[in-house]
Amino acid sequence: xxxxxxxxxKGADPYNILIRDSWNDLGVAMASVFKPECRIxxxxxxxxxxxxxxxxxxVLSKIFKQVDLIELKLGEINKSLETxxxxxxxxxxxxxxxxxxxxxxxxxICGDIAGFVxxxxxxxxxxxxxxxxxxxxxxxxxxxxxGVNFEDFKNMIGAFKMPRLVYIxxxxxxxxxxxxxxxxxxxxxxxGLIKDGSFYEWLINSFQxxxxxxxxxxxEMIARSIAVKKFYVEKDPYEKNERAILNFGHTVGHALEKxxxxxxxxxxxxxxxxxxAAYISWxxxxxxxxEFYEIRDMFVPFGLPxxxxxxxxxxxxxxxxxxxxxTSDGFKFILLKKxxxxxxxxxxxxxxxxxxxxxxxxV
Length: 363
Ligand SMILES: NC(=O)c1ccc[n+]([C@@H]2O[C@H](COP(=O)([O-])OP(=O)(O)OC[C@H]3O[C@@H](n4cnc5c(N)ncnc54)[C@H](O)[C@@H]3O)[C@@H](O)[C@H]2O)c1
Ligand SMILES: [Zn+2]
Prior knowledge:
By secondary structure, this protein is α/β, with parallel strands linked by helices. The chain has two domains: 4-175, Rossmann fold, CATH 3.40.50.1970; 178-362, Dehydroquinate synthase-like, alpha domain (Up-down Bundle), CATH 1.20.1090. The protein contains 14 helices and 13 strands. It has a seven-stranded mixed β-sheet with strand order 1-2-9-6-5-3-4, with helices on both faces. The chain has a two-stranded antiparallel sheet with strand order 7-8. A two-stranded parallel ribbon has the order 10-13. Helix 5 packs parallel to helix 6, helix 10 crosses helix 13 and helix 11 (266-283) packs antiparallel against helix 12. The chain is globular and about 60 Å long. Bound molecules: nicotinamide-adenine-dinucleotide and zinc ion.
């Protein structure tokens, strides 16, 4: 599998995604995009910083004149404007200027916050993603969506900020908790379902090797997931249209994150949302009954939930209405036209959504 993927977004600068199993090539890759006079601020969360912060700072210090580290508190609750504001204060105190760079070292939460800081500090400074969760490797680190939650609204404030480089070191997955690995699998399965049926089949056939984290399989899985993301990001980087297909499972998923008070991870909620969306796709005759049940049941061996106890459907609908992606005209829903082909639908009714949520409700 190709371990260098070039992203060429329409109307934005191209950048490379490197898939490696060590930090060995990071210095050279960084030096190819930034000058040694640049200051580099690594933004990481406290878990990841403890594990990899020193190593990264030491690699970067060999090339750049100043390297700093900001540690973020954990959790979705801290993906907030307050955290962003603290980062601005630190950057100002450290005298960061227009030509300096932010490196996000962590999962999707850290990447979303650090990316938003990079997009807005002094109207935008250089940005690099070093994703450390499976989810951030396959999904959030490429594509340029950044942002934070605001009041009760998920990802409500944000900006597009394309990274100059994405450096994936798969060896860091060794310390990732199993639950977080599963969370990433939801986005991996999503990629296959919406765009690449043969990848989806490969995932099903390889579930044992994937669950045992066999290096070759993990690298191939990451590269093939990114290939799907690349397709949509290049065509429609600012999500005017078909990039929305990447939100398969997210319409209900985001509402469930809020509903469960973020006790269920992003990936777990995306898995549940994908089951709901696949159910509607079956009811609209795009999928057969067998296909729906296969899709639903395939989340299980990857450690993902397919039902939640005692769901209050009214509240989920209410949360869905407050999602920024749903216009006042109705719900924008991503369905499957078939396995390997997502589609945008604007004619999903509230009743259909209620039935779909009922499918993931066990009493
Ligand atoms: N911007 C996008 O395009 C996009 C896409 C998908 C998801 N997201 C966002 O991503 C977020 C979820 O990201 P996530 O699932 O990566 O969660 P996360 O960033 O919270 O990371 C999960 C946990 O794993 C820990 N961790 C990270 N890497 C580790 C490692 N290598 N070893 C040990 N522990 C490690 C973290 O400290 C954290 O506790 C959500 O906020 C979601 O909205 C954004
Ligand atoms: Zn997601």
